[in-house]
Amino acid sequence: MRTVLLLGAWGMYAFLCVFVWVEADWRLEWDSALYLLTGRSLASGAGYQYLGEPFTLRPPGFPSWIAWWGGGGEFEFERLNRMVMVFAALAAGAVYWAVAGVRDHGRGVWVTALAVTCPLWAGRFNWIQSEFPFLLFLFSAFALQRRAATGGPRAVVFALGAGLALAAAFYMRSVALLALPGMLWVGGGRAGSPTARFAAPLLALALAAPWLWWSAGESGAVPDQQLLASYATALLHVDPGDPASDRVGWMAFAARLFGNGGRIAAALADNVLAVPSAALGLLLFFGLAVGVWRGMRAGSAVLEWWFVAYLGLLLVYFSFASRLLVPLIPGVYLALWKAVEASPARAQARPWLRHAPAVAAALLLLVNLVRLPGSLAPHEDGVGPSELRTSWERTRVAAAWLRERTADDAVLLCNQAPIYAVLSGRRSYTYRFPRGRDPIDRYGPDHVLLDGRGAVARELGRALDARGVPRQTIPGASVVVYGPLHRAGEEVQSEPADGAAP
Q1: Residue 16 has what DSSP assignment?
Q2: What are the distances in angstroms from CA 10 to CA 4, 52, 110, 332?
């Protein structure tokens, strides 16, 4: 009966994900556009490339799914959104499997229900990004390694399965390698054999080696087209896009630690307790520390290791965005559950506190469900649904205008280059990261869009005006477009063509 109820609950959640909550259009976002463009490159047979150069920042796992599911030609965004939501439903099952194990079914149900209704988790629905496939494979690896840790004749089989799943998670997001020491250190368990302990991390590392070797040997995309040159550069260097820049000093790391710590505390308090308070978040951190410590003492604690390692990385990372917390969410609720279980009153076996973890979980679940409609609406840090939709509509209008009025081989220079490349089908470069280079001379664009509002856009506009390049405002988009710019060897027009369409 319990199995039937669990499958029924998961089936209802999966139905909502795949058939009710799926959106028809694309949520415009930079990283999402990069996944789409690299997926299209794979589907076309050009290899794993962006702007004609090998793309080395992220492994090709998720773009490969895009290429298989709906890449090449015109994207079917509803189909791709559905793919993301299938992964979201499967990831919920993986979280339950990892948390419940073979006997902790009640805790598994509550932790999973809280995780998949948390605003951070639900807020990633319909974003064509790698979070959910990453979570599916990562927590499947944890579940399999936990089974391997119990020993038995099939321990090595479970450990090999864990290695395969962890390698799949790595090809979605390379940060999965943070789980390797945990699997090696605590993943074997007291009953596990040395073979089972080493099988998963060694197999995962062996399968990750081809990408690590290939990406290390390639120069990657041109340096002024990405914020990051690599994740190591972002972590260790002052300019995340320039490996030759100065190393980050200890004081800078300390500033990151305190700055990111406050942001993470406030974000967790907001998304878990519905109170955006850094002070309350620090109290929440204390409860999480108690729960993680208790989990570590229990023996096989790969989940707890992942929580500590990934949180430690976020604390010293060069920037913070709340969506980076999504892989922590199951661990947050698991640690809170264990912290409540460890309360002194429960240790004294007071009967009225016997069900305290379940009662606390039910209250938090109610909060999540009340907030769920707002969580499902598109939003980003500091930007609400209405503002996002307005911005996206203007971008779509501008992209349609460019698609109708420019040649198929036209080159664009703009701020949101990957997004315009997806929507307009034109080769697009960004001026967002100049790094001392003149993007007009470097890329010879036919048209320049001032779709950004910063100092770089203002300086670029002044330079184009000084060169007498014709400009106009795209109707309905509030975006200034310059062009056509004359390519090398052509005569430069001395006066701007007022309002002339390119």
Answers
A1: I
A2: 10, 43, 13, 21
pLDDT of residue 502: 34
pLDDT at 2: 77
More confident site: 238 or 355:
238
pLDDT tens, 373-394?
Answer: 999 999 998 899 999 999 999 9
Asked if residues 398 and 479 have their Cβ atoms less than 8 Å apart, the reply is yes
Q: DSSP string spanning 399-428? A: HHHHHHHS-TT-EEEESSHHHHHHHH-SEE
- Mean pLDDT estimate for the chain: 88
CA distance 260 to 271: 16
Produce one character per residue of 376-400: b if its CB has 16 or more CB atoms within 10 Å, e if not: bebbbeeeeeeebeeebebbbbbbe
| Cα 365 to Cα 197: distance, rounded to the nearest angstrom | 36
Q: How far apart are CA 408 and CA 424, in angstroms?
A: 9
- Least confident piece of the model among 59-73, 304-318, 369-383, 440-454: 59-73
CB 184 within 8 A of CB 310: no
* Whole-angstrom distance, CA of residue 339 vs CA of residue 345: 12
Contact 77, 85 (CB under 8 A): no
Per-residue confidence (pLDDT) for residue 293, from 0 to 100: 87
For residue 450, the 8-state DSSP code is E
User: What's the confidence (pLDDT) of residue 397?
Assistant: 96
Give the list of residues 6+ apart from residue 15 with CB closer than 8 angstroms, or none: none
Which structure tokens are listed for 240?
């995340």
Query: Inter-axis angle of helices 329-341 and 250-273, to 10 degrees?
Result: 70
Q: What is the rounded radius of gyration, in angstroms, for the C-alpha atoms of the chain? A: 25
Token duo for residue 305: 């290791």
For residue 188, what are its two tokens? 């074997």
